[in-house]
C-alpha cells in the first residue's frame, strides 16, 4: 500500500496500492454498503446504481483527451456526494437517470469541453447538425469564447 486517505466526504477510504510483481499502481476504495440505490430509467425501468458504469461513461467521453483517471474519479465522487445529499433530503433510495446524466454533464463541462460535447451528443440524442451546433454555441457563450 502506498497511500491511504479518507474519500467521499469521509464515507470511504481510498487506498493507493502498488502491484508487487509489475510495480503498476492502482486505487481501491473501501466503503460501507448502504441501502441499494436504484436508478429510474426514462422508460420507467429500475436498475441498481453502478458507480463503475458512471465512471466508464465519463472515461469513454474523455478518451484521447488530456484527462487523467484521478480527475474523473474525483468528479464521480462529487456526483455521488450530491446523490447522497439528494437521497437523504427526499428519504428515498432511487434517483432519476436524467438527474445523473445532468450531473455528469456539469462535471464534464468543467473538466474538458470536448468530452462534454461528446457526452452531450449521446445523452441528448442529437438528431442533426443544428442541434449539435446549438449546444456548441451555448457552450461557447458560457465559457466566454464568443
Features:
146 residues; alpha+beta; three-stranded antiparallel β-sheet; 51% helix
Report what the structure shows.
The radius of gyration is 17 Å and the shape is globular. Helices cover 51% and strands 19% of the residues. The termini are far apart. It has two domains: 32 residues, no CATH class; 109 residues, no CATH class. The chain is built from five helices and six strands, in the order βββββααβααα. The protein is an alpha+beta fold and 146 residues long. A hairpin with a 4-residue loop joins strand 1 and strand 2. The model has no long low-confidence stretch (mean pLDDT 87). It has a three-stranded antiparallel beta sheet with strand order 1-2-3, with no helix packed on it. Strands 5-4-6 form a three-stranded mixed beta sheet.
Amino acid at each position: 500500500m502506498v497511500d491511504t486517505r479518507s474519500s467521499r466526504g469521509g464515507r470511504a477510504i481510498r487506498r493507493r496500492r502498488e502491484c508487487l510483481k509489475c510495480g503498476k499502481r492502482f486505487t481501491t476504495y473501501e466503503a460501507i454498503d448502504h441501502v441499494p440505490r436504484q436508478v429510474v430509467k426514462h422508460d420507467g425501468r429500475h436498475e441498481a446504481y453502478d458507480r463503475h458504469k458512471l465512471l466508464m461513461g465519463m472515461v469513454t467521453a474523455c478518451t484521447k483527451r488530456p484527462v487523467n483517471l484521478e480527475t474523473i474519479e474525483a468528479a464521480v465522487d462529487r456526483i455521488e456526494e450530491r446523490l447522497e445529499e439528494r437521497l437523504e433530503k427526499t428519504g428515498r433510495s432511487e434517483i432519476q437517470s436524467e438527474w445523473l446524466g445532468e450531473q455528469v454533464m456539469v462535471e464534464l463541462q468543467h473538466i474538458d469541453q470536448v468530452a462534454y460535447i461528446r457526452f452531450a451528443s449521446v445523452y441528448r440524442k442529437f438528431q442533426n447538425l443544428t442541434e449539435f451546433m446549438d449546444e456548441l454555441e451555448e457552450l461557447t457563450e458560457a465559457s466566454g469564447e464568443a
